[in-house]
Recover the amino acids of this structure.
């Protein structure tokens, strides 16, 4: 009972061995992470089209719930770039930005997403995330990075542009280019330039100054904080908000409020599909990050339990003024590098952010939105990696077509269509390939008991024995294809008296394929040709034994291909009317 | 050039060798088939909700076009039961039965279906039909048979009922039961009883009377004709139409008219999905029938060319007053049994039906609709075969779930949802199974060079060499699963110094799986464990050579598992820090 509970509430497990050393490590990590997360949370709220405090709120209760139910010890849960973009796209379709309805719809989206993740987790359906292939994920992240960066250009220019696809965004930006505010542009470009330099140039300089690698790294990561502080001071000192600079303005000084997501059936219906998409993409991103860190510390991640942890976090976000969250790479890196040992570090971060929400919000009144946009742009451009196109092109055209379609359609038609098409193409390509499997005619590699393709190796063969290795599981999509292929080979070959199908690569035989094998058996019997199987695997044999095929098999099942060769080669089989086969020649 | 033309127009091929003997055989077959087809064509038009002559028209031009473009020498193309039901269901959603719009919509459906088939054929996409698994087809045909029989009960009762699903039909019949016309019921039940007897009892009696099997068979098949003639005479003699019996009534005496399908965008949009469904189901039925007969005569069917033949036939139907057609089993059986040798028999049948359409239609004025309904009911009940449920239950629960869902949903929610769900379940089940593949730890079968599962066979092993046979192609859906599984096995095993993955069952490695293998290679190197592959197939090896994995492989690629065993077993590999692996124990 306790063990079972511990499985579903991992905190009961690691909590027992929590000691002073772990506590102090976690606390130090939490202080660092809190400082880093403040600008990031504000920026992602801006990206999602929500008031800045929503980003802070979405980082408090979700972190605590994930610390209780999640399995990763390094994962930091909260708003992330891609999910914020998806939120803006989904909520923008049901409400106007800046309205109360928009905020409520974001809560509903978090609730639906949390409910979906929790359901998948309880049903142990985490494997579904595997249907997002690596190239599709890579393509999607790259395209999203481009979209996100473009969506933030309006804040850097200080204009009021919109759009959810690349052509829409660029068109809207071009239309409003004349309204560019020079002060906003100056602040924004300065921030971008500084942040790029902090990423590329600062760290080597610090190392040259004799600082250790870890400290240099943390200072480098504090770049956004420096940009926020500096531009806020400039904006305040020169009252730049009176000259057209958009600033964050008043943010309520409050702990996360208790909020109620909208539950109208229309709203739920409109947000259901985006919620499923956000859940799956968020889950895939989160699990990838968690597994990366778990591998470094030789810990294990349980994907199904991760679903429960993320589900709880999102439901928490829905009731405390947040919006959809997931485990993010950049915040987890900070957490890990700062030395976090247990999920408790996350909980302390939550306390830190809560203090910030109550005490520090007046300080960000003059924070320019252009600075936040700059931090987003610099962060997401590191996600853009078009090399996946080249890599997949070299390796496999079908993987390439999936990634290319995902990138193009995400940019041109939006994130939802892009990723859905990518998944559909991956699945269809896989089905297509398995529907016309490779079938090799094989012979004995001389001096061994090993059989290989006669077209690739110098092998021994016997014209009276046709030995075929079917390189695919037999199932409905290829059953008829194989039946035809084998019949054609047999009718074209001269003097074939036995056919041996080597089943070493046949991992399953479904009912359609069973019927095809039975039909094949009957036809070969009519033609006076023996029909044998070899190297049938245990699970396949178990299944075939429940059917009639083996009883009526016009031949034998051999343990190995070599046993079949020894029994059949160089000796004619019993002459059951071999006339037909001869006539064909 | 000529050869290429011959490929697309098979008549140019068989037409060259056409002689007098084939002509007389074909002519005899055509006369018999014409007589058989008249009641069948009228009945299926009734089932499709169309005027009776549409069934005749749909059997004339389509037969000729198929004879020119199709590859089967025995297939008879025309209206069939399942496609007629699908037509009624699709067209019923856009127009009212009995209106001109209904007839035009049926023409449009035939045009769309023909265009779709033709496109698939030109693009050589015939393999798509393979995604309808045998169990799904069997379930769909069975459920359709039940639905069709129920849909005809209203004609036997003489009431005005409706509905497209089983509950709707039964509910509507129950509501109208009080209006039953006793004369219609008497004619209908008498016809059903006679036709059942003709199927089961007549043939043995004829054989007992000393008639040959072929003649007995043909006389038995003429049962519907006898029923049609007898009930028509009774209806005419007693003027039963004045007492509430529904009769066919006036049918225009005409050759197939030139008709124009409706081309309104709304109509096309509404009928596009049903047209795709009708095309695929019709194609699958037709190819199955054609292959059955081709096998008997050792001829070959080209599925892609069949698509072109059926596409042309449907387009022909659209412009000559017909509705969607395909190759039917019952009409092809008649054709085959009557001795048809070439597709020319079909053309002569078309001439026969054209004569019937011009000359014989006045004779069927008094033909009771109840008789036509009876011929349909008796014909389709032979399609109902629930044994597929038991067979798939015994063999494979996932096949069973696909067939059960197809039957239930077809009956309860209609043919389109039923078959779509069946296909979706088949595909998802397949993906699910391949996403968690069977991985066997293997050892050497003593005295051989053959390796089998250590849990099933008594085999030799070496604790320092973990040999795993992965029973599935590696692709995105199982890449991460395998990566985890192998790492867990390695970290749990004691003193493992080498891992050999036997790739005999790995038929493909996509880009996601390649990345997983690279990650696995890196992790095993970090742990000081060698990583080897064996029995990599030619096509997989070709692909892997384009990537970096093989250059960086922390081990070797062996031709056979036995070669790997000889090289690695009983000898420790180079001790690249084997500390980690030991610590885990």
């Amino acid at each position: 009972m306790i063990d079972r509970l511990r499985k579903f509430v991992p905190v009961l497990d690691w909590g027992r061995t929590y000691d002073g050393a772990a506590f102090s490590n976690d606390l130090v990590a939490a202080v660092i992470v809190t400082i880093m997360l403040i600008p990031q949370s504000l920026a992602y709220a801006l990206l999602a089209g929500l008031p800045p405090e929503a980003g802070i709120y979405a980082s408090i209760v979700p972190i605590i719930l994930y610390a209780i139910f999640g399995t990763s010890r390094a994962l930091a849960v909260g708003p992330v770039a891609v999910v914020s973009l998806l939120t803006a796209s989904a909520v923008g379709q049901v409400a106007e930005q800046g309205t109360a309805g928009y905020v409520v719809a974001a809560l509903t989206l978090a609730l639906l997403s949390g409910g979906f993740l929790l359901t998948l987790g309880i049903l142990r359906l985490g494997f579904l995330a595997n249907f997002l292939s690596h190239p599709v994920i890579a393509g999607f992240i790259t395209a999203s990075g481009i979209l996100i960066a473009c969506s933030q250009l309006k804040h850097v220019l200080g204009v009021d542009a919109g759009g959810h696809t690349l052509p829409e965004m660029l068109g809207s930006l071009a239309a409003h280019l004349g309204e560019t505010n020079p002060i906003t542009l100056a602040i924004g470009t300065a921030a971008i330039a500084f942040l790029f330099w902090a990423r590329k140039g600062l760290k080597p300089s610090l190392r040259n100054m004799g600082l250790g690698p870890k400290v240099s790294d943390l200072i480098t990561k504090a770049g956004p904080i420096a940009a926020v502080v500096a531009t806020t001071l400039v904006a305040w000192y020169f009252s730049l908000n009176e000259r057209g600079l958009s600033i964050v303005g008043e943010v309520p000084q409050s702990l996360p409020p208790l909020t109620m997501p909208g539950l109208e059936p229309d709203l739920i219906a409109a947000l259901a599909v985006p919620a499923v998409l956000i859940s799956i993409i968020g889950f895939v991103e989160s699990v990838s990050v968690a597994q990366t860190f778990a591998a470094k510390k030789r810990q294990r991640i349980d994907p199904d339990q991760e679903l429960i942890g993320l589900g709880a976090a999102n439901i928490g976000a829905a009731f405390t003024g947040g919006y959809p969250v997931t485990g993010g790479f950049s915040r987890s890196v900070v957490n890990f590098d700062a030395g976090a040992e247990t999920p408790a570090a996350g909980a302390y971060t939550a306390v830190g952010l809560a203090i910030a929400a109550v005490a520090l919000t007046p300080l960000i009144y003059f924070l320019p939105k252009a600075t936040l946009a700059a931090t987003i742009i610099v962060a997401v451009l590191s996600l853009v990696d078009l090399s996946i196109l080249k890599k997949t092109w070299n390796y496999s055209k079908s993987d390439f077509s999936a990634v290319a379609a995902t990138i193009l359609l995400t940019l041109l038609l939006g994130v939802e269509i892009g990723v859905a098409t990518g998944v559909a193409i991956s699945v269809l390509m896989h089905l297509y390939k398995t529907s016309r499997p490779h079938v090799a005619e094989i012979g004995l590699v001389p001096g061994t008991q090993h059989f290989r393709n006669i077209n690739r190796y110098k092998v021994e063969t016997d014209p009276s024995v046709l030995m075929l290795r079917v390189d695919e599981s037999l199932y409905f999509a290829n059953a008829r294809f194989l039946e035809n292929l084998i019949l054609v080979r047999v009718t074209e070959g001269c003097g074939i008296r036995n056919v041996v199908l080597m089943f070493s690569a046949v991992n399953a035989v479904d009912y359609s394929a069973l019927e095809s094998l039975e039909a094949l058996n009957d036809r070969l019997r009519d033609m006076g040709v023996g029909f044998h199987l070899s190297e049938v695997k245990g699970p396949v044999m178990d299944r075939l034994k429940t059917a009639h095929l083996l009883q009526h098999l016009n031949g034998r099942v051999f343990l190995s291909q070599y046993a079949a060769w020894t029994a059949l080669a160089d000796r004619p089989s019993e002459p059951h009317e071999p006339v037909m086969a001869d006539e064909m020649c």
